[in-house]
Predict the 3D structure of the following.
Amino acid sequence: MTASRALFRPTLLRVSIVAGLMVGTQAAAADGLETIVITAPAAASPAEPLALTAEDSAPRADLAEVLREINGVTSGRMSGHGLDPIIRGQREHQLNVFLDGAAIANACPNRMDPPTSFGNLAGYDAVEVRKGVTTLTRGPGGSGGSIELTRNTFERAAEAGIQSRFGFATSNNGLTDQSSADALFSNGNAYGRVIGQIANGENYEDGDGNEVPSSFKQRSGTIIGGYRVSDETGIEVSVDRNRMLDTRYAGTGMDSIYDNATIYRLDGRLGDLEGPVDALRVELSRANVDHLMDNYSLRALNAPMPMEAPAESHTTTTRLTATSRIDAVEIDYGLDFERVRQDAQAINAMNDMLMFRQWPDGQTDQLGAFIESDWRLTGDDSLRAGMRVDRFESEIDADLEKSIATHMMVPASIRTSAADPKSDTEVSGLLRYDHAFDAHLNGHVGVSRTAVAPNLTQKYITLLMNGMLAKVGNPDLEPEIHHQLEAGLSWQRERLATSATVYVDQVDDYILQDRQIAGLMPMTTSYRNVDARLFGGEFDLRYGLTDWLAAEGQISYVRGRNTSDSRDLPQIPPLSGTLGLSAERGAIDGAVVLRWADGAEAIDEQSGLDTTETGGYAVLDLTAGYDITGNWRVEAGVDNVFDRTYAQHVNRAYSSVFGDPTARINEPGRTVWARLTATF
């Protein structure tokens, strides 16, 4: 398919539309994937089915806010930074997130720092979003999908010389400045790359002019070094350092003084081998996060006492993948391992006395084996089949005082169970078939079984408020078992292109947060397993009105039901979508996009996550861009042109310090932004 720049700029509205259509092309049929790719200019390749520059979205304080523009993806807001992504109604441990192949766990028990908060589009070449289960080779879980930020430094280093990218952006509401620099040096074999970003944000205002606590400072840098023997063989190492400072949160009782992450990574490739194995790849990573939050440094102290909560997380991942090709079948198989350690305390800052341990030096281990094959049956048909077996283990230091295993306010049965190590073994499977009906119509159908293990928060969290047990984990949780069925069609003609996907996910042992659990006080939140069902669909359409003007639209719907109790699941996004026009004439391009959502009435107040129904909204955005030269580009836009006051349903409630604790946190009001980028 030949696509003009108007198809891609200047918003991510095109991402979902084109990605959905690409599922039905011959390339997508071969891969069996439903993947959305946002790539930077230097990373673009003629072989890429879909490519977007990192600057094709308005400047955002957080990556998860960019991902909202993809059909079927949203994110929960707690502040201006640290939004938590949701794909098809699934979140947190139900999504797999990788930063250039490395997994990273939040250090904040309240998820001020979800994994995507450590990523920034300016520091990566691509972000790939897979909706649903499309592969089993990238670890267990991922029932809702995956988000992977990648750098194709190894491939780009084949070109000798210097490649660089620079950018600066600003806005009048929230994000005050965002600058980045990226330089790659290579002689065709040995190479090095240096990346740096600086961003600062102030409190933003909603449509009514109310100030929402959301200021932050972000500093990040990356050093990469490697050596290419050939296109298939080489080694690469990298160090990433990300510092978040003085981050305010409207949706929680504390702010983040610092949240510092360091990621070490090694990636070794060996290709063009002779014998039964064609290629080998070894990926190793270590991600350390050091975090401190308190309730008095960045806000007026309204609590009975000043509190601070030091926390840390350490994530170690290892993956060995082998590839073999037998005629029309390509097989990937191997082993992967992930260890997550998390520790968090709550301390009375007046006397340094330990109040309770949120995570008592908890640890989860996962060891898995996988095999997956892609089989080109005919020129029009392809099949993907995969299976993996995972061993899950978890434990805490049961001797630590004031933890879930030792605190006297925790029921005795929970204390006893928490002291015992837990283990479980699960099997996952995937089968997907792609078919081209003719030159214009393509389709796919997929079935999968995936296991999602409970995380350390769900098993071992302890939280006290006003001397009462506010939240406690459930050490006896079973893994979620997701049984999914997905089907889709895409159709493309010269001017009109459209795609549609429907899915259903039947979940055994869905992990539900609940306030009414037997044996606990009525206002104590914990977790339990229930049966659940999620179902929905997505539809995308693009129509070329002229050779320079296109009309586009997308719509997504998901519904989640707790079938054990015949009630709705919490924090499920309502029916939503976009309508837009995009245009390009010469060096000038622009777009007008209407974002809308229906009111959210299907809620679960018993969870403590849904506090009230959320009204619908419609918001207009404008963008325009101009290519000054082949290297320089300037862009500007206005988000929420009519300064509407609105809130996403999937977000936190205000902390009582800042507003009505039953109200959702409003989105920014009218925001004017501008950006200048240069690529050499």
In short: Residues 1-53 have pLDDT under 50 and may be disordered. The two ends are 27 Å apart (CA to CA). Residues 13-22 form the longest helix (10 residues).
